[in-house]
Amino acid sequence: MIQKKGGLGRGLGSLIPTGADKKPMGEAGTKPTASGREIVDIAIDEIVPNPEQPRESFSHEEMEELISSVKEHGILQPLIVSPADDKYELVAGERRWRAAKMAGLRTVPAVVRSVKEQQKLE
Fold first, then answer.
1. Could you report the per-residue pLDDT of 54-101, keeping only the tens digit for each?
2. Which residues pair with 111 in a beta bridge?
3. Is 117 assigned a catalytic role?
4. 95-121 pLDDT, tens digit each
5. Residue 29: count of CB within 10 angstroms of its CB
6. From CA 30, how far away is CA 18, in angstroms rounded?
7. Which of 72, 94, 117, 122 is flagged as catalytic?
8. Per-domain residue ranges for the chain?
9. How confident is the model at residue 20 (pLDDT cuts 50, 70, 90)?
10. Helix/strand/coil for 84
11. Which residue has the higher pLDDT, 17 or 75?
């Protein structure tokens, strides 16, 4: 009898990364993104919210879910920040930043971009 070869032959394990698949971090704790930008770990206390943030309220229940997720999995998508004096200003990811603070994280992954004022509002 001829034995059938099923599927692609790699199994689910090839689709789900394991700790062994992780690439080592570069110098100073940086990792490149798909776009070539560096992801850096920044202390939460060095990040300030954007005063022009259009979103004024955050659902308590959704924040609790996000806090729980951050505690379990960490921050999966880096924040976007721009240099502002001696700190960094949030461009994108305020909910993740707030959840990380409430979850007790000390640092968060972020991509640092130089952003013009108009771009922050978009």
1. 667 777 888 888 888 888 888 888 989 888 888 998 888 888 988 899
2. 39, 80
3. no
4. 898 889 988 889 899 988 876 644 554
5. 13
6. 19
7. 94
8. 26-121
9. very low
10. strand
11. 75
How far apart, in whole angstroms, are the C-alpha atoms of residue 8 and residue 26? Answer: 33
DSSP 51: T
Q: Name the residue with tokens 């979850």.
A: 103
Which residue in 76, 100, 98, 82 sits closest to 37, CA to CA? 82
Domain 26-121 belongs to what architecture? Alpha-Beta Complex (3.90)
Q: What is the separation of C-alpha 44 from the centre of its chain, rounded to a whole number of angstroms?
A: 13
C-alpha to C-alpha distance for 96 and 101, rounded to whole angstroms: 9
Q: What is the pTM of this model?
A: 0.62
Mean pLDDT over residues 39-57, rounded?
Answer: 83
Distance, CA of 87 to CA of 84 (rounded, Å): 5
